[in-house]
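User: Here's a structure from my thesis project, written as structure tokens. My advisor, Dr. K., wants to see whether a designed sequence matches the one we expressed. Can you design one independently, without my sequence as a hint?
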């Protein structure tokens, strides 16, 4: 029996449409060669270009498509010269993550022996780790709702037990799967700033509770500033890293730069 899946397609802005078109074509070829599944692609207009043309960055109709779809194919979103009245860029991908509770952003980083990298890796060393970025709260909690006065601006970081527990379960499950596949030693590193902020001490406390339920795996901690250093100095030592939204936003770009 053939399973039918609907894919919501957000082609995005800038290079987005250019790379979405061949991606959809490739997926259509793969589905066409299979007797077990079929794919239906439904365009979902959104983004900076759509905002400039219509005044809406994420129409309700596109959100409805995303909610009913089996998966979302989302490309680059935003243009630096198209902004809201408050000066921030158009970023409906963030709205989607929050509305659909897409709390775990998985960012794999892999460099095989002989593959080009800006790093001068020791002979025989490879990089193979996964950064998991919490994607619904953290410092992005008040995105679009920060308080600004003539003399000050304020954004609020939010870390909840509910999302953090789900996030850490996901991270340990991934470490276990990677270990079983021979891809890593089965170690999860919590990246935070618990030495300074009470919110991150709370984050770490929830991580440690989940680690205690996964004694077949290793668990470590690292401050975010030290992590940025070690990702350049010794990235091969990481397996699975899990962190808050803003930290993950920054570190995932560093990870991309290693490849």
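Assistant: Designed independently from the structure alone:
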């Amino acid at each position: 029996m053939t399973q039918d899946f609907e894919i919501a397609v957000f082609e995005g802005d800038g290079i987005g449409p250019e790379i979405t078109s061949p991606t959809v074509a490739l997926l259509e070829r793969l589905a066409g060669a299979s007797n077990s599944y079929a794919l239906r692609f439904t365009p979902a207009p959104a983004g900076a270009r759509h905002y400039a043309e219509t005044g809406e960055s994420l129409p309700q109709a596109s959100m409805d498509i995303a909610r009913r779809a089996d998966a979302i194919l989302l490309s680059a979103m935003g243009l630096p010269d198209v902004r809201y009245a408050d000066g921030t860029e158009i970023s409906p991908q963030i709205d989607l993550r929050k509305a659909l509770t897409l709390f775990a952003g998985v960012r794999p980083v892999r460099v095989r022996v002989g593959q080009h990298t800006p790093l001068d890796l020791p002979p025989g060393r490879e990089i193979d780790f996964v950064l998991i970025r919490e994607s619904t709260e953290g410092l992005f909690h008040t995105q679009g709702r920060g308080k600004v006065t003539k003399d000050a601006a304020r954004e609020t970081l939010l870390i909840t037990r509910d999302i953090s527990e789900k996030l850490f379960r996901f991270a340990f499950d991934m470490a276990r799967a990677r270990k079983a596949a021979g891809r890593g030693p089965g170690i999860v590193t919590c990246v935070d700033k618990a030495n300074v902020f009470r919110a991150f001490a709370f984050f770490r406390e929830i991580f440690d509770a989940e680690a205690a339920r996964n004694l077949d795996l290793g668990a470590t901690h690292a401050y975010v500033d030290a992590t940025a250093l070690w990702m350049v100095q010794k990235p091969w030592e990481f397996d699975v890293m899990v962190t808050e939204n803003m930290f993950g936003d920054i570190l995932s770009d560093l990870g991309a730069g290693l490849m």
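When you compare it with your expressed construct, this may help: Helices lie at 16-32, 48-54, 60-68, 92-99, 161-180, 198-211, 224-233, 245-258.
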